[in-house]
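Propose amino acids for all 117 sites.
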């Protein structure tokens, strides 16, 4: 089985959309500094759990065991490691949570739209 040019183009588009939505989250939080006080670890955990429950109700499937659940977390950690040149102490910097919230928002919208249509 070989990988064609269209699969490579599709993969590049998907990665670009994921990274774009994450950096859109960083941009939105930078433009609205009053959101920063609500962006704590506790609030992010609550929002993540609400995301799991909301998507499970909307799709009608048990979402907590799927790969779609872990994708925003994995992409955010990988992006943070690349952005900080693989320094593990700087993984959870000030851009980690805004990137994660942008990616989580995109994941919620895309999962909801795929369940509806």
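Proposal:
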């Amino acid at each position: 089985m070989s990988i064609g040019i269209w699969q490579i183009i599709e993969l590049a588009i998907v990665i670009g959309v994921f990274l774009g939505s994450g950096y859109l989250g960083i941009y939105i939080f930078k433009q609205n500094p009053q959101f920063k006080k609500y962006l704590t670890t506790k609030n992010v955990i609550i929002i993540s759990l609400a995301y799991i429950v909301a998507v499970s109700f909307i799709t009608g499937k048990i979402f907590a065991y799927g790969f779609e659940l872990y994708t925003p977390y994995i992409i955010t950690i990988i992006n943070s490691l690349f952005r900080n040149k693989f320094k593990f102490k700087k993984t959870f910097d000030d851009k980690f949570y805004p990137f994660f919230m942008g990616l989580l928002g995109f994941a919620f919208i895309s999962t909801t739209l795929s369940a509806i249509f």
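The two ends are 31 Å apart (CA to CA). Residues 5-116 form one domain.
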